Amino acid sequence: MSSTTKKKEIDIEWLRRKYLVELLQPQEIAEAAGVNRRTVERRLKKYGIERQLKSSTFPEDPLQRLYVREGRTLLEIAQIYKVDLEGLAQRVLQLGLELRERYMAKCWLEEEYQQKGHNTYEIALKLGTTNKVISDWLNRFGISTKAKPEPYQDPEWLYHQHYEEKKSLSEIARQQGKNPATIQYWFHKHNIPIKGETYAGHKDRENAPYRNEITLRELCEIRGMSDEQVATELGVNRRNVQYWRSKYGIKARSLSEATTLRHERNQAPYKDKKWLEQQYTREGKSTYQIADELGVTPGTIRRWLLRHRIELRSPDESYFLTHRNYLKISPYLRSMIEGELLGDGSIIRASGRSAFYSHGSKYKDYVLWLSKEFKGQGMEQSGKIRKAVNYLGTEHASITYQYHSLAYPELLEFRKRFYPGGGKKIVPSDLTLDPIKVRQWYIGDGRLTKSKHQRPTIVLYTCAFDRGSTQRLMTQLTARGFEVTLQPSRNQIYIKADSAPKFLGYIGPCPEPIMHIYGYKS
């Protein structure tokens, strides 16, 4: 017995609208039409439907969908639709949308780098990206990246530190993270006299500070310095200090004190390779942090790292570890984030090392409440809450309020679990529901249906998830004693009328600060 199959026809005008106006990809059109991708591609070729997009006139509605609601990066959009990246960033600003990748705006980057004087590392940290990205965009805009002189290269700054702030060369070197010889070089280059340096010869020897009894007593007796430390402080030879200290009858450290000090230096923990490896490699401390805890210089720690053959970090990684944002994920914060991710929340990768939480809502009070809840758990807000106008000039025009957190390495865990492969959001297999997660999910993507003739039921919108994600949620809801059903055509979860009161009791009352917004769902 033979059978014939009829090819499914696709309306030409519908196809044209989906591809040219809504800017859907062939795979997305295929899913909507119930055919395979190749069929759509053949129809596009047959009817000569081709895109001729320009970044300066990129359609607003698709850009809103891709950039705001789906949270894609401008680089992804530019690559998919083959348009200029820089022009696309200008189009985002032109439409009044929030530009997440602010370094793509020349005026903003110019202000941060040239007017405010922030370096590429500081700007990268502020935006949760890498130093290289900022440098690339500075070059792209033609903004000069010529290295700015270090403070110790400025003669006025050196003079102020040494004579007005009364800092020694060692203190200045420690402050700048440099070797004292480097600081001394710049003093000589600018012909700035160093306290005590000329006193070893014949010039002004009578006024040398190491000959002053009051100065020596303060340094040796009150501040407890050794001859070597006094010599370093005054910039002279140790023998000069020894001679004049003895002349004034000022006692040096006793033999036992010197022995104890030498013994402590010999027992310094950084001389133990395992200890230093634990601090530097496993705990991620910088040389400055380790040095500060032990009361030594960062150079000492660096020398012992090299001596132990412990691989040093790259400058970018060192800066990141020193300046990164820290976030402790408490059980409450985890429940809040995961509950919002089941609804309208999203996690966006900021760089290879961090991510930030993003949320859009038509209710400003709700976004403000979320920000306050997150801040109470240590997750700080980035910048201000932004107002975005969607579908401007159409009958579907609306306003949303956008919240972004700071970028945290700890949020990468959520990004990897909810967006495997960096694509569509799913429900992770290891997600466990609790009352707070379900409450936030219900507030964002749930509805309480009420009518005169039927008992109330609850709908949980899971349209954006794949069928596997929806099934995992239904399994967990069933395990908690709720009677649930699935409407396959809409991929929505229904909680039956018998379980509705139990469900509302499980999630508890709506939080008081947002009762005026979502209290009707209780």
Structure commentary:
Helix 8 crosses helix 9 and helix 14 packs across helix 15 (238-247). 49% of the residues lie in helices and 8% in strands. The chain has a 4-stranded antiparallel beta sheet, with helices on both faces. It has 27 helices and 8 strands. It has 522 residues and is α+β, with helices and mostly antiparallel strands.
What characterizes the major β-sheet? 4 strands, antiparallel
The value of Rg in angstroms is: 33 Å
Beta-strand residue percentage:
5-15%
Order of strands side by side in the largest beta sheet?
A: 1-2-4-3
Global morphology: elongated
Low-confidence stretches: 1-6, 198-203
* Mean residue pLDDT: 82
Topology, number of strands:
8
Sequence-ordered SSE layout with sheet pairings:
Blueprint: H1 12-21, H2 26-33, H3 37-46, H4 60-69, H5 74-81, H6 85-94, H7 106-115, H8 120-127, H9 131-140, H10 155-164, H11 169-176, H12 180-189, H13 213-222, H14 227-234, H15 238-247, H16 255-266, H17 273-282, H18 287-294, H19 298-307, H20 315-323, H21 331-341, E1 346-349, E2 355-361, H22 364-376, E3 386-390, E4 398-404, H23 412-418, H24 435-445, E5 446-449, E6 457-461, H25 467-479, E7 484-487, E8 492-495, H26 500-507, H27 515-518
Antiparallel strand pairs: 1-2, 2-4, 3-4, 5-6, 6-8, 7-8
Brief account:
The protein has 522 residues and is α+β, with helices and mostly antiparallel strands. The protein has helices at residues 12-21, 26-33, 37-46, 60-69, 74-81, 85-94, 106-115, 120-127, 131-140, 155-164, 169-176, 180-189, 213-222, 227-234, 238-247, 255-266, 273-282, 287-294, 298-307, 315-323, 331-341, 364-376, 412-418, 435-445, 467-479, 500-507, 515-518, and strands at residues 346-349, 355-361, 386-390, 398-404, 446-449, 457-461, 484-487, 492-495.
